[in-house]
Amino acid sequence: MKNIAIFPGSFDPITKGHENIVRRALPLFDKIIVAIGHNADKRNLFSIEQRMDFIKKTFADTPKIIVETYEGLTVDFCKKHNANFLLRGLRNATDFEFERDIASFNKDLSPNLETLFMLTELAYSHISSSVVREVLRHNGDIAKFLPNALKNETFN
Ligand code: ADP
Questions:
Q1: Residue 87 beta carbon below 6 angstroms from any ligand 1 atom
Q2: Of the candidates 95, 99, 96, 115, the residue with the CA atom closest to the CA atom of residue 107
């Protein structure tokens, strides 16, 4: 059986923290699908096309990592893609409290799907997409928080 993991999130935008989790998890899986959850009620800074483009550029060197978008329940997206693992990163205790409930919920909905947590490397534990958006809103330099593959992008 192939081991396929879904790494779901908003990725508005993808950061060095996200990239680090996916690359460290790569030896465990045959394929990792970075899945951009599309929620019509949520206002995003970057369009779904931009977010997808940033993720594709980040992992252009790694064919085992692919990018998709989805609407609806994450467990349904996992079933559709025969994924048996959900990958999540944990930065701190707040992430843990939140993620534990989501993982328990997903376990009820889909008992064969395992959520796998990886601890963030300390160097990235302060990075979040929301802080990156805040820095960008005030015309700060966000390049150091984003994957190196995006260093030539223009963001505003
Ligand atoms: P959400 O919209 O669900 O908050 P995000 O796009 O912020 O999703 O993040 C997706 C996943 O990446 C989550 O598991 C989150 O904990 C993890 N993550 C976010 N930032 C970092 C970081 N700096 N280091 C490691 N993991 C992170």
A1: no
A2: 115
